[in-house]
């Protein structure tokens, strides 16, 4: 039985979320989720509080209460022995991106071989009538799982699916994509085109092969029709409802990077409207992803600082993705990749730009979370934080580094499956 319902549990000024198996009516659960003045007693259950088990609890104003003797309740509900436990928090998610992938071709379920993935996409295209100008979008391929080849797909592979419909397929990590020749034609890029800073084009014998990395992926997205705010809300709903099935009731989500051409304020409005409509399926702590200093400055000047919001949608830290991923060989290492000595990866920001963004956000009191997988990138990020803290020390700033590989610091982020790529 899938968990369906969300509850709010307050304890020592920190909230937890609960999920239940489907035995309560939705209107009763809605009153719990949104909060009412009705005081309800739930009894005869198997309830895990996070520390121990109990058999009953009370709810008032959307808040869980312990049961007190001689208390008068407006309503009592028999749980019939059903299990209730705290909902899970996903601490690293792209909620909007997940919803977008759920509404596109699901390559994660068809990535055991390149030929199998291509056959799936041919069938997907036959089953889904695309409108004029619409692109075939998919996400989830991973060449490490291919059993029939050890290379990434290229545009010539995708041309076997269609030469007339533009195709855009993102790798599982999100740091790399591949397009077909039709999509390449629509971009107007040539073999002599210069990639954007912090991005690169894949080439074979100096000819574009359809693979694009890091900021070049975002550049390609500017050619794909953008969703409306209503479509964004549908993707959020799709993602949230999927998460609820696994008992996930709150997320720390990075959403501004999914459609970089859509303003952050529009993404926030979509979340706020869903919240006001009583439809937001999960509570969201937004990791605010920016790559441009002026956009970040404008965002903060409008009052968007860590902590702004409420229990359903709250502004979290500035999120900076400072390098790429191991799987796409774009994480910035100090030595060449073991399985591709031609590259060390690269950082996505210059030293001055990274320093400017970190120092500004730090000075304004914002928390900062930085993705820095490669050790060379890590040095760059540590230097930027060191300068920001030396110039303006802030107690309990709670800045964070994400996914580090640095043995001399005692931090190992490489999985064993990546040892062939970066070495032991």
Structure explained in plain terms:
The structure is a single chain. This protein has twelve helices and 21 strands. It is α/β, with parallel strands linked by helices. Strand 15 and strand 16 form a beta hairpin. The strands form four sheets. Strands 10-17-18-19-20-21 form a six-stranded parallel beta sheet. The chain has a six-stranded mixed beta sheet with strand order 11-12-13-14-16-15. Strands 1-2-9-4-5 form a five-stranded mixed beta sheet.
What's this entry about, in short?
With 424 residues, this protein is an alpha/beta fold. It has helices spanning 26-34, 95-102, 114-127, 155-159, 181-187, 215-221, 229-244, 264-276, 293-301, 351-363, 375-391, 419-422, and strands at 5-11, 14-20, 39-43, 46-48, 53-54, 57-60, 63-65, 75-78, 83-86, 88-93, 105-106, 136-141, 167-171, 176-179, 199-204, 207-214, 248-253, 283-289, 313-321, 368-371, 400-402.
Question: Topology, please?
Answer:
Blueprint: E1 5-11, E2 14-20, H1 26-34, E3 39-43, E4 46-48, E5 53-54, E6 57-60, E7 63-65, E8 75-78, E9 83-86, E10 88-93, H2 95-102, E11 105-106, H3 114-127, E12 136-141, H4 155-159, E13 167-171, E14 176-179, H5 181-187, E15 199-204, E16 207-214, H6 215-221, H7 229-244, E17 248-253, H8 264-276, E18 283-289, H9 293-301, E19 313-321, H10 351-363, E20 368-371, H11 375-391, E21 400-402, H12 419-422
Parallel strand pairs: 3-8, 4-9, 10-17, 11-12, 12-13, 17-18, 18-19, 19-20, 20-21
Antiparallel strand pairs: 1-2, 2-9, 3-6, 4-5, 6-7, 13-14, 14-16, 15-16
């Amino acid at each position: 039985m899938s968990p369906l319902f969300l509850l709010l549990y307050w304890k020592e000024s920190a909230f937890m979320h609960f999920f239940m198996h489907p035995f309560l009516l939705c209107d009763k659960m809605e009153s719990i989720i949104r909060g009412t003045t009705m005081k309800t007693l739930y009894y005869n259950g198997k309830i895990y509080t996070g520390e121990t088990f109990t058999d009953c609890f009370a709810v008032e104003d959307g808040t869980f209460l312990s049961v007190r003797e001689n208390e008068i309740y407006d309503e009592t509900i028999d749980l019939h022995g059903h299990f209730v436990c705290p909902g899970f928090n996903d601490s690293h998610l792209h909620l909007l991106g997940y919803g977008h992938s759920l509404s596109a071709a699901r390559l994660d379920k068809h990535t055991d071989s390149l030929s199998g993935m291509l056959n799936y996409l041919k069938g997907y295209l036959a089953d889904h009538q695309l409108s004029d100008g619409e692109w075939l979008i998919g996400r989830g391929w991973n060449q490490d799982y291919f059993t029939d080849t050890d290379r990434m797909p290229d545009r010539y592979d995708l041309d076997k699916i269609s030469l007339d419909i533009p195709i855009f397929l993102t790798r599982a990590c999100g740091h790399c994509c591949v397009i077909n020749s039709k999509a390449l034609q629509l971009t107007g890029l040539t073999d002599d085109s210069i990639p954007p800073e912090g991005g690169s084009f894949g080439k074979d014998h100096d000819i574009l092969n359809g693979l694009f990395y890091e900021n070049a992926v975002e550049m390609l997205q500017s050619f794909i029709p953008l969703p409306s705010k209503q479509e964004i809300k549908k993707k959020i709903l799709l993602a949230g409802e999927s998460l609820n099935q696994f008992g996930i009731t709150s997320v720390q989500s990075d959403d501004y990077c999914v459609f970089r051409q859509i303003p952050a304020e529009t993404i926030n409005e979509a979340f706020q409207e869903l919240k006001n409509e009583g439809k937001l399926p999960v509570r969201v702590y937004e990791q605010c992803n920016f790559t441009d200093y002026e956009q970040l400055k404008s965002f903060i000047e409008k009052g968007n600082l860590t902590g702004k919001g409420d229990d359903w949608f709250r502004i979290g830290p500035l999120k900076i993705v400072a390098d790429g991923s191991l799987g796409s060989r774009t994480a910035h290492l100090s030595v060449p990749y073991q399985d591709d000595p031609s590259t060390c990866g690269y950082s996505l920001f210059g030293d001055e730009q990274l320093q400017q963004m970190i120092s500004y956000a730090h000075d304004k009191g914002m928390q900062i979370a930085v993705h820095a997988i490669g050790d060379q990138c890590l040095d760059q990020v540590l230097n930027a934080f060191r300068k920001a803290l030396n110039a303006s020390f802030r107690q309990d700033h709670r800045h964070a580094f994400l996914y580090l590989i640095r043995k001399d610091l005692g931090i190992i982020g490489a999985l064993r499956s990546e040892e062939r790529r970066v070495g032991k």
